[in-house]
Amino acid sequence: MDQTNIQTGTRFSKLFIHPQLKADVMVREIELLDSEFQLHRSDDMTRLEQLIASTAHKNLPFTKFSWGNKKSLSGNDFLHDQLLSMFKTYFVGASMNLVVHGSANISYYYTLEQSISGDYTHLSCNRQSVLDLLSFFTNSNMSLDFVDKSLDEGECLVESWFNSYYKQTKIPSTITGEWRLRFHANQRFQFPPKNNFLPSLSPNEDHLMIENDNEPLVHKSHIKLWHLPDNDEVPSVSFIVYPALSSELKNQLMVHLYVNHLKDSLSEILYQGGEANFETSILIFEKINIEFKVSGFKENLFNYISEIWKQFKSFTHPYETTFEMVKELVENLLKKSVLEVSGYSNNLMLQEVTESCYDIDQMLKSLSSISYDDFVQFIPHMSSKMFIEGLFKGDISKDESLHMSHLFEESVEIPCDQEYIHIPRGTNTKNVRVQVNSDINSYAEVTFQIGYEKFSAKKTAILKLFHAMIDHNLQDQLSAKEKLGYRVGSNVDFRYGINRFVINITSSVYDPAYLLSRIYNYVKTLEVSLEEVHEDTFKGHIEFLVQTCPDHDGDGDDLWDQITEKRFCQGFNKNLISELKEIRKKDVVRFVKKYLIASSSHSRILEVCIWGCKTSFPTSSV
């Protein structure tokens, strides 16, 4: 390891050598555990997992309640002592392993065969060991679990932790007889079909010629692709499909249905890809677009993406029963998206500042009216006309990227207009209650809009420097000293066309009004505290940002963010570095007074307040 890794490891090890484990922190963590438990009480899969555990054989450790909440952790006067004892017993070097993840050559730490084979390192198997394992899979040693909405609660038992209603019924012998397994010495076992995505044990390790000219690899009316080579990074391909659709509510819901149907139709391909160590995500991007991301060994990357794309282009219509199943899945996903306060806050923020973000209840009502025939008629619109934007990065050559780009040659549309958000002048407030009636968490988030210019290198440089200077101090003041909540966060980002600075707090103790008052009180102190920053410390922040900012346009994920957010500008990072070197402390102070102080004529502030079940919701917001 290099010196930087050694220093990082040394700092990390201190967490185990001198942990604080304070009693008051333990109490806050119990509150956090209970809050997380309450949020998941209505999740079907979580309830089912606990129900299966509760009905398992009583001698198995699997039957334990593994979530933890106030009830399970209360009434124990020695809990803190037990916590310390557990740490001293189990968190010792002899019981721990260190896993190092990074861009260095994997053969430096492990053999090549181990790195590629993974689960398949043992290339031979003992027949008797397989038979011994299969002998446990008998009908007398198994159970079937079904989720049924039609159960009569009066005839059911109740699981104690999640209050789930259930019935236990013995399966008739007429059915179990057909399942009974009998093993014979001459019985043959059928292994899964060959996985053609698995890499060989002798991958090509030739190093690329790094040619980063900051120009698109492919730039046509229907497609725009970029290439960012890096010998030390796993090859990855990211691309977004922009269909020629408006962002009206029905189209958004159709895209939700489409993406989940597509994943279902790709299940076998995605499973084999996972076995071959391909990381794959297929997500909705900005309401109606689809983002594909794939990373993994280069050897079969083209074949894997080709199969995914082939299915996307040929997908026509699902079975009607599958449609009903996916429709219910989308309904549950929409409900879950606002159960956690931060997800709910994001939805509320977008409702306030965009024209095509809708209330979840409105989305659910519209979803219920979509029929199978409606969906079948919609499907051709997803792939008939579209614009594609993508990025090839990592250990993948220009020629290999061009070869892969031919997959997308059938796209025939120009990009759709992008929607931008706009926070009105002054301070704007959104007050709502939590979605889950039993949720004790309150949430306050303040978003400050920073100007209008998409490509202002100076403004971006000041914003990044400002956040670097105050991030640790903000955490120390609002979390450690004032103990406002178990989750305190701040970030800067660029979303829907604007730079934003955001502060948010999640608390099970204080209501949003009090949290807002403490956030603004902190913001008011920034002018003085920034002026008091020592000049050497100020220069240190600048030097760190300059060192961590690549001098070319983007560094993989950052470049992809710039591309998808439509803010990529050639030479932007070089300009950003130049601006960072010219910033003075007075520029940062002036920035705070201009954009973060509510009384400023330039301020555009959005407050989102989510009131927990134990707080007094303001009557003026009803």
Automatic annotation (TrEMBL):
Q: Which SUPFAM superfamilies match?
A: LuxS/MPP-like metallohydrolase
The record's listing under Pfam families reads: Peptidase_M16_M, PqqF-like_C_4
Q: Which residues form the Peptidase M16 middle/third domain?
A: 95-365
Record's keyword terms, sorted: Metal-binding
Q: Domain Coenzyme PQQ synthesis protein F-like C-terminal lobe spans what residues? A: 466-551
- InterPro entries associated with the record: Metalloenz_LuxS/M16, Peptidase_M16, Peptidase_M16_M, PqqF-like_C_4
The name under which this protein is listed is Nardilysin-like isoform X3
